[in-house]
Each structure stands twice: as C-alpha cells, then as structure tokens.
Fold:
Amino acid sequence: MESLADRLRIGHGYDLHRLEPRPPAGPGRPLVVGGVSLDFDRGPIAHSDGDALLHAVTDALLSAAGLPDIGQLFPDNDPRHESRDSRDFLKEAAARIRAQGWTISNIDATVILEKPKLSPHKDAMRSVIAAALGIENGRIGIKGKTHEKVDAVGESRAIEVHAVALLVKA
Ligand code: MG
Structure:
C-alpha cells in the first residue's frame, strides 16, 4: 500500500484582477466572484469573465496534481476564452485531476475585496464551486476580508484571492 505521503497532495492558488469602473465610465467587466454576480460600480479587467476566486481555486487544484497552471491550459490570448465563464476552467481542472485518480478532500479560499460585502453571497459561491467540482458544499470554505482601505485592494482598484486545495488518493 502506498504511504500516506503518496496519497495526499496540497495545492495553493493565487489570483489578482485589477478593478476598473464599469461602462460607460470605464472598461470594467461585471464583477463576478465565485460564479456569483455582485452589484458594484467597478469590475475586473480580464480576458475571461475575470472571476478571481474561481481562478485561484482552479490553480490550487491543478498545482496540487502537478498539472500545468490555468494560464498554460487556458491562455488569455486564445479567443475561445474571451468572456469565458470561469466555471468551465474549474470543471476542466476537476476532470484532469480525477483522471489521475485524485479525489478533492477540501478547498479553502480567502477573498480580499474592499467592497461590496461578501458575506451575503458566500453560501451561493460555495454552492457554485461544489457543483462545478461535483463535491459537497461542506468541503468548500470561503472567507471574505477587506484590505482596511489601504493599498490597491483597499481602494477597490483590485480583488485578490488565495486558495488551497487538498487532494486524496484512496
Ligand atoms: Mg485570473
């Protein structure tokens, strides 16, 4: 039997997107976090839908399995990924890690966003991620933090996400 060390993998993912005013004031896309649309007058600059939470989780999963990262699998100069729903990236990552025999034990993410408040939407975000990955909501943790009004994130000029994922092989 394989040792415990052979049956566990941890992965870390990070993402940041610049936030700009929404049209007509600027080029910001609608603000989507964890597959949930948030009402805000600023949104991400991105090739895909700019969902920083799903990007960080996707990278955590891919990295845990030693697979190429999200930028390698889904290049931001590929027209197929223009305005792409980032749930597609998450589903593809899940399929690739499963193909290697891994099961997702849990995911934990911290979203750093000054405004709007994340708390009313966290359960919906957990449901989106759980559904895309085919796992229970209870295996997903999401925390929202502000950046105390300082620096780019604190001034609503960026959204930042850290995520970890634990993979298990039976
Ligand atoms: Mg991204």
Observations:
- Strands lie at 8-21, 31-33, 36-38, 42-44, 103-112, 140-145, 158-168.
- Residues 4-169 form a domain with the 60s Ribosomal Protein L30; Chain: A; fold (CATH 3.30.1330.50).
- Residues 52-64 form the longest helix (13 residues).
- DSSP finds six helices and seven strands in the chain.
